[in-house]
Amino acid sequence: MNLSTQSGFQNWKEDDSFLEKRVTNFANLEGGKVYVLKWHFVSADRLGQMEELNERAQNKTRVMEFIFLGFPGSLYVQMGIFMSFLIMYILTVLGNVTIIILVITNSHLHTPMYVFLCNLSFLELWFTMAIMPKTLAVFLGESRSISFTGCLLQMFFNYSFGCTEFFMLSVMAYDRYLAICYPLHYSTLMDIKLCCKLVVVSWLFGFLAMSTPTVLISKLSFCGPNVINHFYCHIDSWILLSCTDTYSVEKAMFVVAIIVIFGSCLITFLSYVYIISTILRIASAKGRLKAFSTCSSHLAVVIIWYGSSMILYIKPSKRSSAEMTKIVNILNTIVTPLLNPFIYSLRNKDVKKALKHSLYWSQRKTFVM
After folding, report:
1. In angstroms, rounded to a whole number, what is the distance separating the alpha carbons of residues 239 and 293?
2. Which residue from 50, 122, 150, 360 has the highest number of Cβ atoms inside 10 Å of its Cβ?
3. DSSP string over 75-122
4. Which fold, 67-368?
């Protein structure tokens, strides 16, 4: 390409505080066309003023609150969804609170297995409470808006509780592995001190895992639509609504998903492989059936939790189906916390015995009074 300059430098001005250099009439004569380019070099003071003005313009259009869309439908559909969610929420709270009270008040349940179950119920309780109160308000149509800070905090706690549950499930699988594969050495391998340490580590790593993505999301700019096509603040919503590059957020979430989901899934999977292989060597058919029925219940919840989580968190893409994401989220946020108390604890003979004992003494106290 041949370039020629019709005129040189013009309007050159230089002093201590300002420097402007303008090159005009830089012509490209290729193909008989002439393009005029202008280059400006400004001082640091002027650049600062320009950046300040640009920041003010962005602040004027910065989104300070979001609006939840929830599930589309008529008033009857909304009320039906509200009643369904409300019933499941109440059952979830009652079931998990019951487990916590039973484990705390019955000394014979103060073993590592039930300490894990108590912490799981406590975790499920907060995991549900981080979302459901606001979700119920959205379906009622009373408060569909949420502030930027409120949405960020809801997402942080929801995902942190979710990451903690992954670690907790893997720890519980490891505990069952020790109990079934090494029954004679279980009491020495897994004592209360080690149990408490594993619980603390699960909570700590769960919250640390979401720290970096949350900081990155807080630095995103939102200057366009503020309608979230969901019933709570999901990671996909932040990615879709941001008017700046979200590459760092998507990659950070992908790394977190690999470490948290696949890491904990590997521990859980290997634990259950050894558990099943040990059960198959049990001579009694009745013993094998009983053990398999317990493992199948555990595996059912684990498969639902891990399967739905992998769909949601492994690849938060802007092109993912919003309606499908909402449906899958129901499994994580509502169905799984509802099933856990019944599958993990209320089907257990020791928990049933403790529940009957507590009901008996409560009725006796009421009769005496």
Report:
1. 42
2. 122
3. HHHHHHHHHHHHHHHHHHHHHHHHHHHHHHH-GGG-SHHHHHHHHHHH
4. Rhopdopsin 7-helix transmembrane proteins (1.20.1070)
Q: Burial, 67: exposed, middle or buried (Cβ in 10 Å; 0-12, 13-18, 19+)?
A: middle
Residue 312 burial (CB count, 10 A): 22
Q: What angle do CA 201, 350, 348 make, to 5 degrees?
A: 75
Give span(s): CATH 1.20.1070.10, the chain: 67-368
Give the CA radius of gyration of the chain. Answer: 29
CB-CB contact of 3 with 23 (8 Å): no
- Sign of the Cα torsion 184, 187, 190, 195 reads positive
At a CB cut-off of 8 Å and minimum separation 6, what does 187 contact?
A: none
Question: pLDDT digits over 250-289, tens only?
Answer: 999 889 988 998 899 899 999 989 988 888 888 888 777 7
Contact 205, 163 (CB under 8 A): yes
Both tokens of residue 279?
């059960």
Q: How much is the average pLDDT of 118-147? A: 88
Evaluate if pTM is beyond 0.90.
no
- Report which secondary-structure segment, H or E, holds 222: none
d(CA 107, CA 110): 5
User: Measured between alpha carbons, how far is 43 from 39 in angstroms, rounded to an integer?
Assistant: 14
- Taking the C-alpha atoms of residue 27 and residue 35, their distance in angstroms, rounded to an integer, is 5
Quote the crossing angle between the two packed helices 112-129 and 132-140, to the nearest 10°: 30
The residues pairing with 68 across neighbouring beta strands, listed in sequence order, are 228
